[in-house]
TrEMBL record:
Residues 190-400 are annotated as: Phosphopantothenate--cysteine ligase. Binds 1 FMN per subunit. In the N-terminal section; belongs to the HFCD (homo-oligomeric flavin containing Cys decarboxylase) superfamily. This is Coenzyme A biosynthesis bifunctional protein CoaBC. The gene is coaBC. CTP binds at D278, K288, P306, D307, I308, L309, F326, K340, K344. Residues 185-397 form the DNA/pantothenate metabolism flavoprotein C-terminal domain. Residues 5-174 form the Flavoprotein domain.
């Protein structure tokens, strides 16, 4: 089997130097990479660097090797085109079909998946013109990763930072793994919750659970690879944020509820994969609860947390919205799952058995997807991203 052919487009932003790391990861993992930098990009990183790292001449001019018709052939022959960094100018040209250099010509002739990794100042990213261009690209099936939040050029900080090269690489790997399948979530907004909530007892203790967030993060990453705009509600997760997901950090069940209801307003799909505490302490101790010799501490009174999944199901924020829940069970897995599906009122419920050696914290998972229409799909034990793709298969088949 021949090596996947990847075109790495580099536009003229200061983050161009980070594309060198992305190029290294692509070449070291066996991909055949052709770098197509814009003239502005070459002001940041020279042609010799791209050639040395890729082992191939960088393609910089429409008028070089004219007999090979580079402005057509490079895009035609690619299995994936990734533009990193993608500036506001480059995305504007792509959205409007302009072709004034080799990279924009390549984007017009490519019939493979295209990934844009934006990098720019916050004001440029948030400008209505940029947002309309991003929406246009996504609607046409391109994958536009959301930029990261962090230090920009100079002293500025905000949303607009290029996602880490390792995470862009993972997004590209997942897109290539789909083998050119349709981006069936393109133009959709999906909300995914991940991790486990923590309910404070005092300044040093909390009630929590063993959820690592790996399954939720896999759902977010695979949704990005399938073209979705992803809002990831992350509850106490210590994992690298998936490139392209807009991450909202929460801690408690009440914070997750507020974030979920807000994000669901314009969502096509809401997937509640986080492990949410059923109860929280009735009172928070302002000081550390200490041992007192000979005196037992007062029992901790608990109150019930809101049922976020049931609330989201009952108050659909838009017509046709799908709500997916997760149920971690230790016994009578399917019976408890069916009862929970009815009680919560969601469209799909992903039920998996958990315990000391399964589910939480592992890289693999098995589950059964129960549907409100009575069907059930069994997903064999395997990588969590495989289970995530299987869940999205069920979701995509039900989207209007």
């Amino acid at each position: 089997m021949s090596a996947p052919r990847v075109v790495l487009g580099v536009s003229g932003g200061i983050a161009a130097y980070k594309a060198c790391e992305l190029l290294r990861r692509l070449t070291e993992s066996g991909h055949q990479v052709t770098v197509v930098p814009t003239a502005a990009a070459l002001h940041f990183v020279g042609e010799a660097t791209w050639a040395a790292l890729s082992g191939r001449p960088a393609a910089t001019e429409t008028w070089e090797s004219v007999h090979e018709v580079p402005h057509v052939r490079i895009g035609q022959n690619a299995d994936l085109v990734v533009v990193a960094p993608a500036t506001a100018d480059l995305m504007a040209k792509a959205a409007h079909g302009m072709a004034d250099d080799l990279l924009t010509n390549t984007l017009l002739t490519a019939r493979c998946p295209v990934v844009f990794a934006p990098a720019m100042h916050t004001e440029m990213w948030e400008h209505p013109a940029t947002q309309e261009n991003v929406a246009t690209l996504r609607r046409r099936g391109a994958i536009v990763l959301d930029p990261a939040v962090g230090r920009l050029t100079g002293k500025d900080t905000g949303k607009g930072r290029l996602p880490e090269p390792s995470e862009i690489f993972e997004a590209c790997r997942r897109v290539l793994a789909r083998g050119g399948l349709e981006q069936d979530l393109a133009g959709r907004h999906v909300v995914v919750s991940a991790g486990g909530t923590r309910e404070p007892l005092d300044p040093v203790r909390f009630l929590g659970n063993r959820s690592s967030g790996k399954q939720g993060y896999a759902l977010a990453a695979t949704a990005v690879a399938r073209g979705a705009r992803v809002t990831l509600l992350s509850a106490n997760v210590e994992l690298p944020a998936p490139a392209g997901a807009d991450v909202v950090r929460v801690s408690t069940a009440l914070q997750l509820r507020e974030a979920a209801l807000k994000a669901a307003v314009d969502a096509d799909v809401v997937v509640m994969a986080a492990a949410v505490a059923d109860f929280r302490p009735a009172e928070y101790a302002g000081g550390k609860i200490k041992k007192v010799d000979g005196v037992d501490p007062a029992p901790v009174a608990l109150v019930r947390n809101p049922d976020i999944l049931a609330e989201l199901s009952a108050q659909r924020q838009r017509g046709g919205q799908l709500v997916v829940g997760f149920a971690a069970e230790t016994d009578d897995v399917l019976a408890n799952g069916r009862a929970k599906l009815t009680r919560k009122g969601c469209d799909l419920l992903v039920v998996n058995e958990v315990g000391e050696s399964r589910g939480f914290g592992l890289d693999t998972n098995a589950a059964v997807v129960l549907s409100a229409d009575g069907t059930e799909v069994h997903i064999a034990d395997g990588p969590k991203e495989d289970l995530a793709d299987a869940v999205w298969d069920q979701v995509a088949a039900r989207l209007p």
